[in-house]
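Dear colleague,

Thank you for sharing your sequence with our group. We've completed the structure prediction you requested, and as agreed, I am returning the results in plain text so they can be pasted directly into your records. Please verify that the sequence below matches your submission; if there's any discrepancy, let me know and we will rerun it promptly.
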Amino acid sequence: MQKLKLYLLAGLVICLASACTDYLETPQPAQSLPSSAAFSDVAGLQTALIGAYEAVQRSDYGATGTSINANVLSDNAEWRGSFPSYIDMFNREMTAFNGEAGGMWSNAYLSINHTNLVLNGVATIDDPALTADVANQLRGEALFLRALAHFELVRYFGKPWSSSSASDLGVPIMLTPVANTPDITFPARNTVEEVYNQVIADFTEAANLLPATNDAGRANSTAATAYLAEIAFQQRDYPRAATLAQQVIDAGYTLTASPEEPFFSEGTSEEIFAIINTAQDNPGVNGSLATFHHINGRGGDVVVSEDLRNNGYLAIITDEQMMEAEAAGDTLIDLRAALLTSNGIFNVEKYEDFTNNADDNVLVRLATYYLMRAEALARTDGINQESIDLLNTIRNRAIRRVDADGVQGDASDIVSYEADDFADADELIEAIILERRVELAFEGNRIHDLRRLQRDVRGVSWDADVLVFPIPQREIDANDQLVQNPGY
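Please find the predicted structure tokens below.
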């Protein structure tokens, strides 16, 4: 079996054939380009699809980048490490030479080109092995990965969704494969709205083609629907977000017994889509979620901010609830806060495999959609019992009552919300937003929530230029059709 090597030029990737390895190897010169015959049968297309997944699996894209970047940019984290690219990201001093921005761009477009090769091959090859089921699977997974890459790119390199998205510059939409030198083009940036529309179209078709579940780490229709829900949420289309979130909830996945289980035991009933990292194919010590977060990694490059500690973890259990438990001789603990190790800076231990550097990056899990639907319904229906029930389901899983002997028990009688706990819908919405902040902390969510909510981010506006990644300088130099983002 062959793998693919890719060479980045002006935001496009050029495919080369090479021997099989765990990861895509070092790019080769453009004159080494093979014939497109390398993608003329089902085996070649399956190889190209593997290449698309491997590009997502690289550390500065799907293995860690989408998670860490969203927190370093936000108010959830402080950066304590020594990597200059992340120091600049945290301090909002990025340049067009930033390695994290450049790595995300190149690997996302690398994945996109692989998917376009697959899609082109499905439409053109003549191979008896290309049955209708095989074609649907190949096309569905390729569309999913192409949508995922464009979505992450536009969220980081373009302004957040707003009333000006029809004119705000996003990223180039790439729908045509590059397999030979004559295929190279030099595209301009599409608008944010155009990119969102393409992403929605790709995820929608993927959802129709794929099964509800798939092998671990492979695209499935539930994950595609989940991303469509996330897009509607980002666009503040709350009725549509509520409907799509319900489809995810109804798809057959189930919440785990405790909130840490999806991270300590990969492949749980709650995991819908994850980037798989094993001891054999991990992104290495410098690309490991545990290395960046865990106290036994590097001591914690990414640590809990004071704001998240005081206005997040410590705000989940109210003083009144704690007093009620103490009156009965008990106390209350939040298992999510128990995943913090305090050495004065509060390390995150949601990612714990610092030995093998092999934590999966769980991109889609069920709890997210409980809270998404709860907020979306509260915004459309006001105070309603379903939103409260969904919120309580997540709270009651995380919060435990502890007696004098240290035995943990159910705390729902104390910490569950009721309708009369909220003076109005805004109070219910704020309770859900708080729960999202803590439940989803360090999962690549927070900066996108703040932009959706149009709230300041560590003292700057939600749509500030410094929160948008620069277009990599190498792309600007190679392609004069690309316009740099303001401030760079």
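Summary note from our side: The two ends are 43 Å apart (CA to CA).

Kind regards,
the structure core
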